[in-house]
Amino acid sequence: MLSWLLFSCCCFTSLSIALPSAAPLIFQYNFSDASFDQANLRFEGDAFFNGHVINLSRDTANGSLDYSQGRMTYNQRVLLWDSSTGEITNFTTSFTFAIFQGTIDHHNGDGLAFFLSPYPSQLHRRSAGGCLGLIPNCNTLNTTIESGTVAVEFDSFKNHWDPSNNHFGIDVNTINSTIYKNFTSRINTGIKITCTISYDGRAKLLRVLVYSKDNPEFGNYSLAKGIDLRSFLPSEVTVGFSAATGSAVELHQILNWYFHSTLQPPNTSSSKSLKLKLELGIGLSFGAFIVFVMALVFLIWWNMAAKRGIGMSNVPYKEMEIDDELEKGIGPKRFQYEELLVATKNFKEEKLGQGAFGSVYKGFLSCLNIHVAIKRLSRYSNQGIKEYKSEVKIVSRLRHRNLVQLVGWCHYYQDLLLVYEYMPNGSLDTHLYSAKSILKWPVRYQIALGLGSALLYLHREWDQCVVHRDIKPSNIMLDSSFNAKLGDFGLARLINHGGMQTTLPAGTIGYLAPECFITGKTSTESDVYSFGIVLLEIASGRRPIMPEAEPGRIRLVHWVWELYGNNVILEAADEKLGGDFETQQMECLIVVGLWCTHPNPDVRPCIRKALNVLQFESPLPALPSKMPVPIFAPPMDLVSPNGASQGIEL
């Protein structure tokens, strides 16, 4: 059956070669970059590249500023929708522009626009002034333009059809905006303004977001309009910028430009070649269809087998599954991608951290007036997708004072984003192991209690039992009052209360319970082990494994247990504290840490018992003077044929 599947893949590979296909189109220009290449750009009228920006209208070095008009466009056709299938693109474009006031003895005007029009598109001779270089003779207000034009305009001069001399709007086949918004700050003062325009083909929604990264006092502005672009534009369009002046003058500049579309026209050498490819594709399609049906039967069997534990499964990302999971949650808000672009200043500044499957950025959400931490995962990472789905499924429903709260979420093209409350004091590890920061003892003990409270909620107090599987100082965040908040639920799993799950070992070396390596079982006991390691770290200021340390002090648990057996347990206290700690609390924290890291999971306390001791509601446990040898039940494949299981000693 596998050979049939491979044959099917070959057939469809041949089919994809034979038939023209639409692929994503992405380009990006930073016009101040010395490596900028003008090859794919077209300049018309007075537009030109001055060496570091694009001038859309004349500057003083090139003559009078009045009655100037110019365009810069991408000189390749852009596929807006597929005429054979009716599929319409999703696109996003982002650009930064600046408008400078003209001479003192002139009024300022008229403005610039980003536009889409039929390919190829040409600048009209009589489109200066309020026409913005878009359409000719715009004084014939509301006249439908045969060729079609859809634009987002930035207007700085009030013609008789304009709402004001300082607005932006969406234009459809006319220079009179069908929807607009006034700016509260002037747009022609030379400040750098960024605009992000996105079109959702499925929702038939055009969104516009305008802001200034360098001048936040400029404000954030947005527009949205429902529109089926297929009704106004042909399948192939030109995209670009246009600007104009009249008797009122100013300078219009484009500083950078990014464009991403989900469709791109195929490259064809000739119509004859295309016809041949189509005939070949049609000939292959019938045979390939038969093979495809057979392969589909195999894939269905394979998927069912994987669910029964036979073989492997690789479940792809499905947007609607993510939607469903999040919509079940109470509280998290779905953000527009453009909102998160503004919040993080285009994901270019204030990166808080970098992980294996993505990054975390600091941002400010003006709509909620709060700072947030935005976790950005790659959709192209299978493990990243699994972590995203895990956090979506679990964190969106959890509510506890010692858990980092999920504020919202967004998935957009290749990005998967989770928005969390911002923790101004960072993570616990940055304070434990920083020479510049020394956590006082009362703060440390309070952090230990807070972490225990979070685990109690996850293990016992919520509807289902949540096993975190990656408890460590870098996942323990500290708010403005240094209260502990457990975060990063990418590896978390839901299990029945009192149950366990058999998986591949997941977590961080040094914090993984010994049984996870042998049995593959994840349980609340393995979380308690990680909790114990963190308690010992808080007390000692030492990492769980220190290869550079002297023999006997490399592994934290072994070293502290030896001190316990010699009745000198307080020697494990962090030297940076200088003896400034409450002795009873220090002893309690270390002993509970050892209790939780007992090699045998059956001897470890549940989190409730551990927390009771930390709160001095129960006495300290009596532990062996020497660290015990771990013994646990074997995994199923090590059970003897007669059904008796043999213990495993490490």
TrEMBL record:
Ranges where the Protein kinase domain occurs: 346-623
Primary location: membrane
Locations listed in the record: Cell membrane
Record Pfam families: Lectin_legB, Pkinase
Signal peptide segment: 1-18
Gene Ontology BP annotations: defense response to oomycetes
SMART domains documented for this protein: S_TKc (SM00220)
Binding residues annotated for ATP, in chain numbering: K375
Top-tier EC class: transferase
Keywords: ATP-binding, Cell membrane, Glycoprotein, Kinase, Lectin, Membrane, Nucleotide-binding, Receptor, Serine/threonine-protein kinase, Signal, Transferase, Transmembrane, Transmembrane helix
GO cellular component assignments: plasma membrane
EC number annotated for this UniProt entry: 2.7.11.1
Source species, domain of life: Eukaryota
Record field: transmembrane: 280-302
GO molecular function terms noted in the UniProt entry: ATP binding; carbohydrate binding; protein serine/threonine kinase activity
Annotated membrane topology: Single-pass type I membrane protein
InterPro entries referenced in this protein's UniProt entry, alphabetically: ConA-like_dom_sf (IPR013320), Kinase-like_dom_sf (IPR011009), L-type_Lectin-RKs (IPR050528), Lectin_legB_Mn/Ca_BS (IPR019825), Legume_lectin_dom (IPR001220), Prot_kinase_dom (IPR000719), Protein_kinase_ATP_BS (IPR017441), Ser/Thr_kinase_AS (IPR008271)
Protein family according to the UniProt entry: In the N-terminal section; belongs to the leguminous lectin family.
Name assigned to this protein: non-specific serine/threonine protein kinase
The organism of origin for this protein: Rhynchospora pubera
